[in-house]
Amino acid sequence: MSYLMPSSNLMGEIQKYFLFSDCKKSSSSLKLADMLYDFDDHNLFITPKIAYFPTAMGGASRHMMVNGSSHRIAVKIKCSDNELFRVSPVYTLLEPGNAQRLQIVRDPGPPKTDKIVVIYKTTCASSARDAFECDLGAERKVIALIAKEDVTMSIAPTTNLKSILRQSVQKS
Fold this sequence. Notes:
By secondary structure, the protein is an alpha+beta fold. The protein has one domain: Immunoglobulins (Immunoglobulin-like). It has helices at residues 8-19, 27-36, 128-131, 161-171; strands at residues 4-6, 44-47, 50-54, 59-67, 73-79, 85-88, 91-94, 99-106, 112-122, 139-148, 153-155. The strands form three sheets. Strands 3-10-9-5-7 form a five-stranded mixed β-sheet. The chain has a four-stranded antiparallel β-sheet with strand order 2-4-8-6, with no helix packed on it. Strands 1-11 form a two-stranded antiparallel sheet. This is Major sperm protein.
């Protein structure tokens, strides 16, 4: 499976949009900006906080979750549309300082904006599912999922060791 990444041109436009305050922004885009950028909570870092998908072919996005606290964190992932999206893992435990990759896959479908809600809390439980039997003390972070017809994607470089070695031998 190849992973599709937004083109550098698209990422530059997104950065300009959020960095320059003189641009007119709609109330919905301001809400999205507030949702994506948190300034207080550093117990769980998630990057990137936004994913783009082409509607015609769907795609995949990889994100990293890092426990920045000194306690074990249980994580539960929820999605606004389980018909179009698959996530892995749904539940996980993160030890202090450890990281976990989050994989989001979108099937082809109509253009729309969805979200992943990452619910997390400190726990002593041995299972992430057990930690969420009670929602007391849970925090939330959001990953925006945007599917558009005009998203230009490029294939990410491979990290498969055999193909990297094969390419370097062929170039020599």
